[in-house]
UniProtKB/TrEMBL annotation:
One of its GO terms (molecular function) is gibberellin 2-beta-dioxygenase activity. Its EC number is 1.14.11.13. It comes from the Eukaryota. It is an enzyme of class 1 (oxidoreductase). PANTHER family: 2-OXOGLUTARATE (2OG) AND FE(II)-DEPENDENT OXYGENASE SUPERFAMILY PROTEIN-RELATED. It catalyses: gibberellin A1 + 2-oxoglutarate + O2 = gibberellin A8 + succinate + CO2. Keywords: Dioxygenase, Iron, Metal-binding, Oxidoreductase. It comes from Brassica napus (Rape). This is gibberellin 2beta-dioxygenase.
Length: 332
């Protein structure tokens, strides 16, 4: 259980960032760990997606140096003077953001960069992210996105195989599409300067990810918690050499609710900064999101109305972080 305590005023515009007293949460002994090279990996992934919508992957094949390099470059960006970082913001939704999350009043103890994975869609804001930093930042971002996209596609192919769906690229082809609406988020949960502010704060409020799949990597600072089916929260111990995979809303729909899009949040411990990078694998804007016909052949069994990713995305940007976004698309 999490206990809300004194709100902290941050500036003229942001009234409150909820502060938390550290309270015991369950340990994570039950979070599944999947070795991607194990012969039974696909079965374990399907089970983890059904039970938790979340799991950790090891033996993923991404070079640890690349993960460290991107982390260092991100840390370098966040260490720039505020005035320079602000030139890449506010996010619309791409670019640099501080404390505000999304356009509808959500706030957190966080600063971040949101980048579209499709370089052709790069905006003035995203170019500004790289204008203050050496070229190696942009190169690390591009190389990392390529590698992590491969991890997403490998996992999605294991999911289709585990579910017995043909063809095996039914899901991965959506993320592989060169026009896929995927993105990368680099998050920095800063330390607090004032002694009085050094308390656990809400870094990123509870929410589900809208896309198909999310692949998260963080430094060795804790903070991520996931919500279990019974509503209890479990703290996920950090592991900087592994990835954590989330089922997103679109995959919940495509499996007709068999996989659950996992609710999660981040509590920021302001004595130790946390840096995370998350790749959100999404489909193209025009992709129709429906239960996969080979999994649920009869339309009358579909739990959701048909919608496009573009429709879902616009409705997500009208919502607050913690809203249940799929509610609008459920069939009566
Ligand atoms: C949550 C998952 C991703 O971080 C994100 C977020 C997006 C944003 O920060 O711009 C959203 C949020 C996320 C869900 C609801 C809307 C959109 C903020 C917000 C209030 C990039 C995404 O795709 O959806």
């Amino acid at each position: 259980m999490v206990v809300l305590s004194q709100p902290v005023a941050l500036d003229n515009h942001i009234s409150v960032i909820p502060t938390y007293k550290p309270v015991p949460v369950l340990t994570s002994h039950s979070i599944p760990v999947v070795d991607l090279t194990h012969p039974e990996a696909k079965t374990l992934i399907v089970k983890a997606c059904e039970e938790f919508g979340f799991f950790k992957v090891v033996n993923h094949g991404v070079c640890p140096d690349l993960m460290t390099r991107l982390e260092q470059e991100a840390v370098g960006f966040f260490a720039l003077p505020q005035s320079l970082k602000n030139q890449a913001g506010p996010p619309e939704p791409y670019g640099y953001g501080s404390k505000r999350i999304g356009p509808n009043g959500d706030v957190g103890w966080i600063e971040y960069i949101l980048l579209n994975a499709n370089p052709q869609l790069s905006s003035a804001k995203t170019s500004a992210v790289f204008s203050q930093s050496p070229l190696i930042f942009r190169e690390a971002v591009e190389e990392y996105m390529k590698e992590v996209k491969e991890v997403s596609c490998k996992v999605l192919e294991m999911i289709t195989e585990g579910l017995g769906i043909e063809p095996r690229d039914s899901l991965s082809k959506m993320v592989r599409d060169e026009k896929s609406d995927s993105c990368l988020r680099l998050n920095h949960y800063p330390t607090a300067e004032e002694e009085a502010e050094k308390m656990v704060k809400l870094g990123f409020g509870e929410h589900t990810d809208p896309q198909i799949i999310s692949v998260l990597r963080s430094n060795n600072t804790s903070g991520l918690q996931i919500c279990m089916k019974d509503g209890s929260w479990v703290a996920v111990p950090p592991d900087h050499s592994s990835f954590f995979i989330n089922v997103g809303d679109a995959l919940q729909v495509m499996t007709n609710g068999r996989f659950k899009s996992v609710k999660h949040k981040v509590l920021a411990d302001t004595r130790k900064s946390r840096v995370s990078m998350i790749y959100f694998g999404g489909p193209t804007l025009s992709q129709k999101i429906t239960p996969l016909p080979s999994l649920v052949p009869k339309q009358e069994d579909w739990l959701y109305k048909e919608f496009t990713w573009s429709q879902y995305k616009s409705s997500a940007y009208k919502s607050k972080l913690g809203d249940y976004r799929l509610g609008l698309f459920e069939r009566q």
